[in-house]
Automatic annotation (TrEMBL):
It comes from the Bacteria. The chain crosses the membrane at residues 48-70, 82-103, 115-134, 146-163. This is DUF2231 domain-containing protein. Residues 1-22 are annotated as: Disordered. Keywords: Membrane, Transmembrane, Transmembrane helix. It holds the Pfam family DUF2231. The keyword Transmembrane applies. InterPro entries: DUF2231_TM. Residues 43-177 form the DUF2231 domain.
Length: 181
């Protein structure tokens, strides 16, 4: 067999192993493909159900800050206070559910993308807590400029965290697989 024929015949085997003659030891573990959710209601992962709320409240906080800056109406500063608090509280609830999934499901725990998502999400929770805590001392004075700045960071981190979470779901099928493959 020539080198060209050998390369073509071995191409399929190489892609499964990760390269020429290489075997990925993580993929070879029996639990690597166990990705089904353990914290679920009727098969629906609680983390995925809860995560929409902090994302919406983060966006709402940013929007309320912008509207306060634009209109000067005290309503928007008060709305941003409530939205930032709910973003943090729902974020903690989603974080608890996600952390339990990360620690209990071996296939999730073995993927580096899961840990990246976890670390960025914890950083986002820190920003959300700071945003809410900063506003508790006086929500009207807190909006400009630092409240708006923190809200902008929160929106950016929420997008980055959500992108990584979506990658886990859509690329790796985390939380939606019901078979042990």
């Amino acid at each position: 067999m020539s080198d060209t024929e050998y390369g073509q015949a071995d191409a399929g085997a190489q892609s499964k192993r990760g390269g020429p003659g290489l075997i990925d030891p993580i993929r070879e573990q029996s639990d690597f493909h166990r990705l089904e959710s353990k914290v679920a209601v009727a098969g629906h992962p609680i983390h995925a159900m809860l995560v929409a709320f902090p994302v919406a409240f983060v966006t709402g906080t940013f929007g309320a800050d912008v509207f306060y800056w634009w209109t000067g109406d005290l309503f928007w500063a008060r709305a941003a206070l409530w939205a930032s608090g709910m973003a943090f509280l729902f974020g903690v609830a989603a974080g608890i559910a996600g952390t339990v999934e990360l620690l209990w499901v071996p296939g999730i725990r073995q993927r580096s993308a899961s840990w990246t998502h976890f670390i960025i999400a914890v950083m986002l929770l820190s920003i959300l807590g700071a945003n809410w805590g900063y506003r508790l001392g006086g929500y009207e004075e807190a909006v400009l400029p630092y409240g708006l700045l923190i809200s902008t960071f929160a929106v950016g981190f929420a997008g980055f965290t959500g992108w990584h979470g979506g990658k886990l779901v859509f690329e790796y099928q985390v939380g939606i697989s019901s078979t042990g493959k």
